[in-house]
């Protein structure tokens, strides 16, 4: 019994002299990450008629599989019309994993791209994100040509920028093939045109076409007449 008491005392004395072990501080949590941003059409087509709207979406991804979340980071949509060599910023939003760019009306053939600003960590628990840029996305625009709903007198307007220019008219017995040149007319200074079609017996199809150029696609319509 005496031996047991001595051992217990020695153990107690040893514990009293122990030095506490310090808990290490957490290591630096900030990572330097690369990013990627994409630009895609969400509404509309790559080829539209003048006056039509298009909308886009972007997604930003970081190399760790997540998305940037620093508060000051931004994403910007840029446009470069045909004939220009300069990108112009048209909208900027706070950066996030998903971004909607809505309701744009391209004035002519236009390339679009999206960029992410990148960002520096605001504290040791955030990350640094490198800037990134999407591939360009081209939207082609056809001139708009208006026309009546019926009749042999056809008149309308071609927009934009189609004053004193040609409208090529062809005719065929068939809707999809066999067209031959009928006449070429010119618009007035405001882009308006007018022609009275001949009253040929039977069914005829009339093709109206305005030519394209470096800024606009060609466009047109087919008109049907019938005289019994």
Task: Walk me through this protein's architecture.
The chain is built from 1 helix and 18 strands. The chain has 228 residues and is mainly β.
What brief labels describe this structure?
4-stranded antiparallel β-sheet, mainly beta, disordered N terminus, 228 residues, single chain, 6-stranded mixed β-sheet, 47% strand
Give the overall shape. Answer: elongated
Taking all Cα atoms into account, the compactness measure Rg is 35 Å
How many strand segments?
Answer: 18
Order of helices and strands: HEEEEEEEEEEEEEEEEEE
What structural category characterises the helix and strand content? mainly beta
Structure annotation, total helices: 1
Oligomer: single chain
How far is it from the N-terminal to the C-terminal residue, by CA? 131 Å
Beta-strand content: over 45%
Tell me about the biggest sheet? 6 strands, mixed
What is the average per-residue confidence, as pLDDT, rounded to a whole number?
Answer: 90
Uncertain spans: 1-18, 21-25
What helical percentage do the residues reach? under 10%
What would you say about this model in short?
This protein is mainly beta and 228 residues long. It contains one helix and 18 strands.
Write the layout of secondary structure elements.
Layout: H1 2-16, E1 32-33, E2 35-43, E3 47-49, E4 54-62, E5 74-81, E6 88-94, E7 98-104, E8 110-116, E9 128-129, E10 132-133, E11 137-142, E12 144-145, E13 153-159, E14 166-172, E15 180-186, E16 192-196, E17 202-210, E18 219-227
Parallel strand pairs: 1-9, 3-11
Antiparallel strand pairs: 2-4, 4-7, 5-6, 5-8, 8-10, 8-11, 12-13, 13-16, 14-15, 14-17, 17-18
Signal peptide: 1-24
Keywords: Signal
């Amino acid at each position: 019994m005496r031996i047991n008491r001595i051992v217990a005392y020695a153990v107690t004395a040893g514990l009293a002299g122990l030095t506490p072990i310090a808990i290490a501080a957490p290591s630096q949590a900030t990572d330097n990450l690369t990013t990627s941003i994409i630009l895609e059409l969400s509404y509309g087509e790559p080829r539209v008629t003048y006056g039509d709207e298009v909308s886009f979406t972007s997604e930003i991804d970081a190399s760790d599989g997540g998305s940037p979340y620093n508060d000051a980071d931004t994403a910007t949509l840029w446009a470069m019309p045909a004939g220009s060599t300069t990108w112009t910023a048209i909208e900027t939003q706070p950066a996030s994993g998903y971004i909607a760019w809505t309701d744009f009306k391209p004035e002519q053939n236009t390339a679009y791209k999206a960029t992410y600003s990148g960002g520096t960590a605001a504290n040791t628990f955030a990350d640094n994100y490198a800037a990134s840029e999407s591939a360009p996305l081209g939207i082609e625009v056809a001139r708009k040509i208006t026309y009546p709903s019926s009749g042999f007198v056809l008149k309308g307007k071609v927009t934009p920028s189609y004053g004193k220019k040609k409208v090529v008219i062809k005719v065929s017995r068939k809707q999809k093939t066999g067209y031959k040149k009928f006449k070429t007319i010119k618009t007035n200074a405001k882009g308006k045109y007018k022609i009275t079609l001949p009253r040929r017996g039977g069914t005829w199809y009339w093709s109206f076409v305005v030519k394209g150029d470096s800024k606009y696609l060609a466009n047109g319509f087919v008109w049907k007449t019938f005289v019994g």
